[in-house]
Amino acid sequence: MYAHGGVLQESAVTRARPGEIGAERGRRGGVPGEGQFLRQLLQLVDVGDNSIELPRPDGQLSLGNPKARQGSNSAHDLRCHRRGVGGHPKIVSRKTIFAVSSRKTRGTHGALHARIRALGKERKLVALTRLSSRMGFDAWIVGGAPRDLVLGRDVTEVDLAVSGDAGEIARALQSRGYGRAILLSGERRPRVYRVAGRGRIVDVGELEGDSIETDLARRDFTVNAIAIALDSGDVVDPFRGIADLAAGLLRMVAEKNLVADPLRPLRAARLIATHGLRPDSRTSAACRRVAPALFRVARERVQAELAKLLDARETAPALVWAAKAGLLEPAFDVALSDRDWSAVARALVPFDAGFARRLSPPRRRRLRLALLAARLGLSPAQADGWLRRRRWGSEEAREVSRLLAFAAAAREVRTDDQAWRWVLRAGGCATDALRLLETVDPRSRAAVAKLSARVARRKPIPDVRGGDVVEWLNIAPGREVGELLEAVRVESLAGRIRTRNEAREWLRSHPRFANRSGRAD
């Protein structure tokens, strides 16, 4: 690694060349009230010893009464029937299998109850249940919410598939004060509306096909092809997605679904990072075949998926898989071989460590983007332009560029004054810039250690402004005022100036002004 013209470069990875950075429905029952809906949701947590009798002929799951110590570990329950000891008897429904928690579940059994209870009390969902009875439509919770309920994760938003007019339903919610109805799908069908306002975001989308099973058959991966009937709480899982979650497996529903939306292979990488799932060989091979079509996907959609991936606590394994699948070149629009992209992806391993996991997701994401840019041999200015073209936004591009610039500048620090000026100018990104430099260039550890010590020792800066400098020294506003103000702040960081009075006396004793008459008192 070396620095040239402010560029952090790594000789082990080919530098990107100029010009290569671019451009039949589930049956309806009676509509329950809030309490009934909540009780049915809670029954998702446990089933009784007669669970083998639970699946109904239509492929949905009738829920039994919970018994003690059952359903607390679905991965255990789903495996133990093979051994004939412990757990639930084998659930034999061809279409539906049931489980709630898994070996990936971090929370307690009680915490999972609490999450489901909170979802059941969600005002929008209660209102939607009542609307479905009044307006005569069916609704199912689909997408990430059933998946994350099974895993015991927090549900950040709720996607609903409805048999009625999504616009009419969304506007009915809006008229009842649950937020503004916004069309997300544009001219595309089926239509999807977002009801955004206070509380959880709810997206209301029309069924694809004439039944929930047909809709689920068009989804990307089995873990995302699970539905919960809003009125009854029945689970619809025609592709054994819950069993795949218990096994930590990521499996496509059908390759044609990936072809229909080439963003979906990149979503596979994101689910590796965010949920720790492992793609099977057929899914990996299909993703590789579809990867070139990612060039045709709108940059905004690609950026949104990459942002979720880079926000995750651990990203390197997902990026290595994506590199091998040929996804990173079209995703980042940088022409490198899959082998070089794999090297770039492996370079992010240090930023999966403990310190990075403690950072906020935006800070973690920007640090990883800066490391990617450094490994690609991009200067701060090149990284800024690249990220803007890839729809990361001006703020994101600016912050990543600053990290690269201050990492490069840290290598040039020699004197104590330069060190404190670097600390002042780097400000809140100083620590991350030093982490970036140390990762890209391990030979810089001594310089990083010295600057890190100063960052740790920096003192508060008194409230001294340009107008104060003008008044205290009786000088005209101009460039000199800015230079003097920076000098005061450097001395303050070092602990040599602690108050406004000390700042005034320091300025007046400055060699340029010590003998100047006419000073204001």
Indicate the topology.
Blueprint: E1 2-4, E2 7-9, H1 34-42, H2 74-83, H3 109-120, H4 123-135, E3 139-142, H5 144-151, E4 157-162, H6 166-175, E5 180-183, E6 192-196, E7 201-206, H7 212-217, E8 227-229, E9 235-236, H8 241-247, E10 249-250, H9 255-260, H10 264-275, E11 278-279, H11 281-290, H12 299-311, H13 316-324, H14 328-332, H15 338-346, H16 354-357, H17 361-375, H18 380-389, H19 394-410, H20 416-426, H21 430-440, H22 445-457, H23 466-473, H24 479-493, H25 500-508
Parallel strand pairs: 4-7, 10-11
Antiparallel strand pairs: 1-2, 3-4, 3-8, 5-6, 6-7, 8-9
Helix pairs in contact: 1-3, 10-11, 10-12, 10-13, 13-15, 17-19, 17-21, 18-19, 19-21, 20-22, 20-24, 21-22
Keywords:
single chain, 521 residues, alpha+beta, cca-adding enzyme, domain 2, Beta Polymerase, domain 2, 3 domains, two-stranded antiparallel ribbon, 25 helices, 48% helix, 8% strand, elongated, disordered N terminus, disordered C terminus
